[in-house]
Amino acid sequence: MIASLRGKLLDNDGTTIVVEVQGIGYQVFVSAAALGALPATNADLFLHIHSHFLKDEPIRLYGFMDAAERGLFQTLIDVQGVGPRVALAILAGLPPEELVRAISKSDVARLTQIKGVGRKIAERLALELRDKISALPLGRAPAAAPASPGVPTGPLGEVYGALLHSGYKPGEFAALVEKMDADRPVADLLREALAALRRK
User: Fold this and answer.
1) Regions of the chain with pLDDT less than 70
2) Taking burial as the number of CB atoms within 10 A of a residue's CB, which of 15, 62, 114, 181 is the most buried?
3) Residues 136 and 81 in one domain
4) In this structure, are 57 and 73 located in the same domain?
């Protein structure tokens, strides 16, 4: 079983990426959060991996920037009717903390607002995971913790976190992020930040 990959990003088509590890290219389906935090092509990359096996089909790899998101993904696919693609759609539909809260409170109405999640799946999520999901690290995270001094919130906070996950240190990018326009899409801001950092 492949649990992680460390290598270079060779290709990114917006849904899957190719990571080269010692001359071998691994195709990986990535979460929306991971997609937004990817480095530039040919840059170093580390991913937490879920290896998915189905009878008479090739192994599929699913990649995440942190182990907590991978754990949430693995919990979701334990539910009947929730395969990897639906699980990725669920993760893309709600921030992890909000998703954990909706499931733990059996908020079926909120869950059905996620694209690809009907009432039947939402009810199964609430029924089967209501107690289990609170045991995940995300479920135990303290709520409404104040941001650290100098750390932005909102869209700029997402860019800040993505750069941290990519291996950069705050001293390298904090001033750059601070000057960005928070009204622009996060993906555009992240691409701009990575391009500026590569030029340094």
Assistant:
1) 134-154, 162, 164-167, 200
2) 62
3) yes
4) no
pTM: 0.65
73 and 125 both lie in a single domain: yes
What pLDDT digit, counting tens, does each position of 153-177 carry?
Answer: 667 777 777 676 566 777 788 888 8
SS3 49: strand
Residue 149 domain-assigned (yes or no): no
Question: What sign results for the dihedral spanned by CA atoms 41, 176, 96, 48?
Answer: positive
- 180 in a domain, yes or no? yes
